[in-house]
Amino acid sequence: MNSIQEIINWSEVWAPLIPLTFFLILRPKTAWTKPVFYFLVITLFFSICLDVMWKRRTLGLNDWFEKNLWWWWDIDRATGKKALKNNIFYNLNSFARLIFFSAFFTYFYPVFKKIHRYVPWIFLALMIVNFIFHESIKDFSSIEHAVEAAILLTCCLIYIYKATLDDTVPSLSSQPQFWLITGLTLYTAINFFIFLFYKYLMASLRFKKYANDVWNVHNISFIILCVLTAVSFYKAKKWIKTSPY
Amino acid sequence: MDKDFTLLITLGIASMLLLAAGFLLIVIRSQRKKWHLQVQMSQLKEQQQNQLIEGAVKSEEGERHRIAETLHDEVGAILSSVRLHFSNINSSQFNERDNKLHDKSKELLDEAIQKVRSISHNLHSTLLKEFGLNEAIRNFLTKTVQGSVIHVDMELDTNYLIQSPQMDISIYRIFQELINNTLKHAHPSHITVNTNVVNNIFTLDIQFDGSGLSQEQFEELRYKPDGLGLKNIQNRIILLKGNIYFEKNNPENRIRLTVPLNREL
């Protein structure tokens, strides 16, 4: 049971390696795969940082962190003890996810170009204001994550709506990007409520166990997203062979 | 209180998951249904278009037969009768001038009889029905270039077996139209005609010198109101589910017709 828990805990690191391996082996030439690839690289970097910080004791790196990153340590509000928070990487990852996936959507319908041109920057400006005046960037930002999930979920729904109106599409599942969009729809839908309440769950000792359980759900949905991204890359490679587009 | 709060979050997550998954499933199913309906509709449209073309081609063929029979049985018979009466005229008492006129008239009458026979045979597909496509092509080409300086080479695949009469007639009519157009517009000095059957696909290749027609020009011309011949070619090709390619590459121009065999028309 513990080993399964460990695998799920580290899923944010190993799961992006699945689509990244597919991308590097297949090298799909479809343009939309590029922003997704960049996102996967960045998310892998952030995930390694945050998981290494989290598992520093198991990895025997606690002393190193205490010695070299002493300025990063904080007092945990729930326990009142000294703690090294890795949430900044989650906050940065959330913004990266929004910017790269909104770039990914621009390859399909013109409406996404407008969304990509304005929404991420408005979002960034609001987040800067939020982190200066309201929340600390070292804390997990439920607002940022929930808003980001809502925007991406809306993008997914717009895409699906437009695709159903498109008479030239024979079947949604035959399009390589559809698999990735399915993964993203499920990921954002499942995690919207998780993100919305996660900060409050983490802040209270009473909900600590529930918060950990609910984060497992997040990790499983992230694995699904990564697997479906790999399917998309695989289909994108086949798509090139049979279609000029 | 704590339990209610966590239950509420769990319910929220579960309902979002169900909503998203349900939405995706409904969208995929309805989109697939819509696509099937569209395919069915386009098939029906195509079927209707083919029926219209088939009707037009059949009525055209019927009209050709009617004209051919009228020419052969009525005009031809009258001309033959005139020729008989003309031969019975006693020309021994004619002076030299009248004799010359008599001979010239007889010659012109023979030519007219020959022309009527030739037109009637071209319009009627008796030769095609009796001896097959190869013989009809050979006969038509030989007769068409007879008396001209055009050099003709023919290599016809003997493996071609008679398909349905409709198919043979359509291929033959396309060939006639293509040769007539080539002679009229390209002014060739050399024509090569090849046919072959490979993997159940019949290919007719017409190569000629002179001024050719490119695929773009063909596409443009067949939509012009006066391009009846090209329209007929296109209609018959749709009916045959075949393809035609024009290649303009002076002095070697090429027209290639491909038709899938073993299908019911």
Protein topology:
The complex is a heterodimer of chains A (245) and B (265).
Chain A: H1 2-9, H2 11-14, H3 17-26, H4 33-54, H5 62-68, E1 73-75, E2 82-84, H6 87-105, H7 110-133, H8 142-165, H9 176-203, H10 208-242
Antiparallel strand pairs in A: 1-2
Chain B: H1 2-88, H2 96-123, H3 126-131, H4 133-145, E1 151-155, H5 165-186, E2 190-198, E3 201-208, H6 215-221, H7 228-240, E4 243-247, E5 253-260
Helix pairs in contact in B: 1-2, 1-7, 4-5, 5-7
Rounded mean pLDDT of chain A is 88
Strand order of the largest sheet of chain A: 1-2
> Counting H and I runs of at least 4 residues, what is the number of helices of chain B?
7
Q: So what's the CATH class of the largest domain in chain B?
A: Alpha Beta
Distance between the termini of chain A: 47 Å
**Major sheet strand order of chain B:** 1-2-3-5-4
SSE topology string of chain B: HHHHEHEEHHEE
Strand fraction of chain B? 5-15%
Structural classification of chain B: alpha+beta
Helical content class of chain A: over 70%
What's the end-to-end separation of chain B, in Å?
Answer: 77 Å
How many structural domains in the coordinates of chain B? 2
Overall shape of chain A: it is globular
Contiguous low-pLDDT stretches of chain A (5 residues minimum) are 241-245
Major sheet of chain A: size, sense and barrel closure? 2 strands, antiparallel
Question: What name does CATH use for the topology of the largest domain in chain B?
Answer: Heat Shock Protein 90
| CATH architectural label of the largest domain in chain B | 2-Layer Sandwich
Q: Which consecutive residue ranges of chain B, at least 5 long each, have pLDDT under 50? A: none
So what's the oligomer here?
Answer: heterodimer
Description:
The complex is a heterodimer of chains A (245) and B (265). Chain A is an all-alpha fold and 245 residues long. Chain A is 74% helix and 2% strand. Chain A contains 10 helices and 2 strands. Chain A has helices at 2-9, 11-14, 17-26, 33-54, 62-68, 87-105, 110-133, 142-165, 176-203, 208-242; strands spanning 73-75, 82-84. In chain A, a hairpin with a 6-residue loop joins strand 1 (73-75) and strand 2. Chain A is globular. In chain A, 39% of the residues are buried. With 265 residues, chain B is of the alpha+beta class. Chain B folds into 2 domains: 1-124; 128-265, Histidine kinase-like ATPase, C-terminal domain (Heat Shock Protein 90, 2-Layer Sandwich), CATH 3.30.565.10. Helices cover 66% and strands 13% of the residues of chain B. Chain B contains 7 helices and 5 strands; from the N terminus they run ααααβαββααββ. Chain B has helices spanning 2-88, 96-123, 126-131, 133-145, 165-186, 215-221, 228-240, and strands at residues 151-155, 190-198, 201-208, 243-247, 253-260. Chain B has a 5-stranded mixed beta sheet with strand order 1-2-3-5-4. In chain B, a hairpin with a 2-residue loop joins strand 2 and strand 3. In chain B, helix 1 (2-88) packs antiparallel against helix 2 (96-123), helix 1 crosses helix 7 and helix 4 (133-145) runs parallel beside helix 5. The mean pLDDT of chain B is 85. Chain A binds chain B through residues 153, 157, 160, 163-164, 167, 169-173, 182, 185-186, 189-190, 192-194, 197, 201, 206-207, 210, 214, 217, and chain B through 2, 5-6, 9-10, 12-13, 16-17, 19-21, 23-24, 27-28, 30-32, 34-35, 38.
